[in-house]
């Protein structure tokens, strides 16, 4: 399946000395490290952000908050735990995004989630909704509003039936454009297992999606 992501899935090699300098209090080193990952982190935030927050919060604001949190928590990063620095920074950023979701959505459910009846009925999660939005954005065929709604319902129904881990590895590899190794780290899998899981999951998704009008041309 063609990825709608235009960012490079490979960051520049990480200079370990920058991590050490940052941990010693060098703010410029930390800023350089964060700057290397900023495009990938911004892409992750934009993809994962609840669609009802997209008009209220800019991904850049999330990253600004994440950088402040990162500076306070840098001492927690331990390379010996075999977590790459990027994966750890992504984790910190994701935690900040989830915090914003709780603050801005759960406390304002009546106003922010009026349109979630479809998702509620299907029992879909945030990952499914993000994947569906990404797939709809990548579809090139022109559809009227009703047809677009039917496509969305069909996609959400399909994703709701998939294994949670399959949905997540598709989100990581296709929409966040992570490497197989990074996805394996995040999911707690071996690289071999993650690779096999992704190939199987994307193959199943392709087989099912070609049955939905307007998506056959993606494959």
UniProtKB/TrEMBL annotation:
BP GO terms, sorted: DNA-templated transcription initiation
Domain of life, source organism: Bacteria
InterPro entries: HTH_Sigma70_ECF-like, RNA_pol_sigma-70-like, RNA_pol_sigma-70_dom, RNA_pol_sigma_r2, RNA_pol_sigma_r3/r4-like, WH-like_DNA-bd_sf
GO molecular function, one term: sigma factor activity
Coiled coil, from the record: none
A Pfam family matched in the record: Sigma70_ECF
Protein name (Swiss-Prot/TrEMBL): RNA polymerase sigma factor CnrH
Gene: cnrH_4
């Amino acid at each position: 399946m063609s990825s709608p992501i235009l960012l490079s899935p490979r960051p520049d090699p990480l200079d370990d000395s920058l991590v050490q300098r940052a941990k010693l209090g060098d703010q410029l080193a930390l800023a350089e490290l964060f700057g290397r990952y900023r495009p990938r982190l911004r892409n992750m935030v934009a993809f994962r952000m609840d669609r009802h927050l997209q008009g209220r919060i800019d991904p850049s604001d999330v990253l600004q908050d994440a950088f402040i949190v990162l500076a306070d928590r840098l001492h927690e990063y331990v390379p010996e735990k075999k977590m790459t620095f990027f994966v750890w920074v992504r984790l910190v950023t994701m935690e900040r995004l989830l915090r914003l979701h709780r603050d801005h959505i759960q406390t304002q459910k009546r106003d922010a989630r009026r349109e979630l009846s479809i998702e509620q009925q299907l029992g879909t999660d945030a990952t499914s909704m993000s994947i569906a939005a990404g797939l709809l954005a990548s579809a090139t065929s022109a559809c009227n509003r009703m047809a677009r709604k039917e496509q969305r319902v069909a996609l959400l129904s399909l994703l709701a039936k998939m294994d949670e881990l399959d949905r997540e590895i598709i989100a990581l590899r296709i929409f966040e454009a992570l490497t197989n190794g990074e996805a394996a780290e995040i999911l707690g899998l071996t690289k071999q297992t993650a690779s096999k899981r992704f190939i199987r999951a994307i193959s199943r998704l392709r087989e099912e999606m070609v049955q939905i009008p307007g998506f056959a041309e993606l494959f």
